[in-house]
Design a protein that fits this description.
Chain lengths: 286, 93
């Protein structure tokens, strides 16, 4: 597994733009929220955007492990909210990317320690120095998940092609539409993006897995991307490297496409059809 | 018997694919859950049903099963729907 480290140079001129808060959410656990948060924020930073990724899973932090910065955590988001540390002290600079910072969750407190007001204050402060603020939501629909999604401008809804994940995603969409700050304020609704992960086209073809089209038809939100099921994701987490850095891997390419589409590029969907086997290719099949 | 026919279906490839089953189940349950989500707290519905039934039972003898209270939506209106199946004349008071 080789590392490909690409970091953009910083620009002298920056058009004044408003920072965007993006929540990575799903309801169900284990669908790939943290994997996605790590790769998505890395992808944004690789394109030159000043990006910070925040772990909202207080008590069960894991983003630091996936980003490979677990040994550099000194202060966390709760310390900042309580005034025990400044934001600059708590932010950890990513080892691969100049524009990327990680704000870890507290491992020792319970999730009730995080309050909506405190989160709002931190986000406002971060908006002054970042273009994108990616919020890695914990599973569930309790306070932690709510804190992560409340201030969101856009949401990546991570969904596996599986009944319980689709149902939970629908529930989360309902909460975003009814209880997010944008909904409460009567502002333009949170922009929703569907991200289907752990997709296996072979099983879809044999009728044993929901297709992307099925999931889209059920959830009725625009598709941002499809991440194929891959053994590389485990290897990436083993080594503390976001999957988007993996060379020659479908997962990395799929995540790069996701970031590209998020930035407004019209990229065709990939990895949604079965790879042609050796004999099929030999026979000229598709 | 059903196991054998199921096995035969499976071998013939006639069996309904599980992905199709999953989609159908999701469409049904989500339609139900979404309907419940939008409406003003339906928590009071069971109590409302009980009280309405008590009132009606004073005048007409109705079965518990033939009495339904539902809160739904029709275009822009929330609709409270009472559905009572009246008994045959001979059974009434």
């Amino acid at each position: 597994m080789a590392l490909q480290v690409k970091c953009a140079t910083s620009f002298f001129f920056k058009v004044v733009n408003v920072a965007k808060v993006i929540v990575v959410t799903s309801g169900k656990g284990g669908v790939g929220k943290t994997t996605t948060s790590a790769s998505f924020s890395t992808g944004l930073a690789m394109r030159g955007n000043r990006t910070v990724v925040i772990d909202f899973d207080v008590g069960l932090r894991n983003l630091d492990l996936i980003m490979g910065c677990e040994r550099r955590v000194v202060y966390d988001i709760i310390n900042v909210i309580n005034g025990e540390a400044s934001l600059n002290q708590a932010l950890i600079k990513d080892k691969n990317c100049d524009n990327l910072y990680v704000l870890p969750a507290s491992q020792t407190r319970d999730k009730e320690a995080l309050k909506l007001e405190g989160v709002g204050k931190i986000l406002d402060e971060l908006k002054e120095s970042f273009d994108f603020i990616v919020c890695d939501s914990p599973a569930g629909i309790e306070s932690g998940a709510f804190n992560a999604m409340y201030y969101a401008d856009e949401a990546l809804v991570v969904t596996n092609p599986e009944v319980s994940s689709v149902r939970d995603s629908d529930r989360i969409l309902g909460i975003l539409a009814a209880k997010s700050k944008r909904a409460v304020d009567g502002a333009e609704p949170v922009k929703e993006h569907l991200l289907v992960t752990r997709y296996d086209p072979k099983r879809v073809n044999s009728g044993e897995m929901l297709s992307v089209a099925d999931i889209q038809e059920i959830l009725r939100i625009p598709l941002l991307g499809v991440i194929p099921e891959s053994q590389m994701v485990l290897q990436a987490s083993n080594s503390g490297t976001p999957a988007i850095h993996l060379e020659k891997s479908d997962v990395a390419e799929a995540y790069r496409d996701v970031v590209g589409r998020f930035m407004g590029e019209a990229l065709p969907m990939r990895f949604t059809t079965e790879k042609a086997g050796f004999f099929k290719r030999l026979l000229g099949g598709n | 018997m059903s196991m054998i026919s199921g096995l035969l279906d499976y071998l013939r490839g006639n069996e309904k694919k599980t992905a199709a089953v999953a989609k159908e189940r999701l469409q049904i349950i989500l339609a139900h859950e979404r309907a419940g989500r939008g409406s003003a707290s339906p928590d009071y519905l069971p109590a409302l049903q009980e009280e309405l039934m008590a009132v009606i039972a004073k005048y007409i003898h109705v079965d518990r099963d033939s009495f339904k209270v539902q809160l739904g939506r029709h275009d822009q209106y929330d609709v409270l729907e009472l559905n009572i199946t009246l008994p045959d004349k001979s059974n009434g008071r």
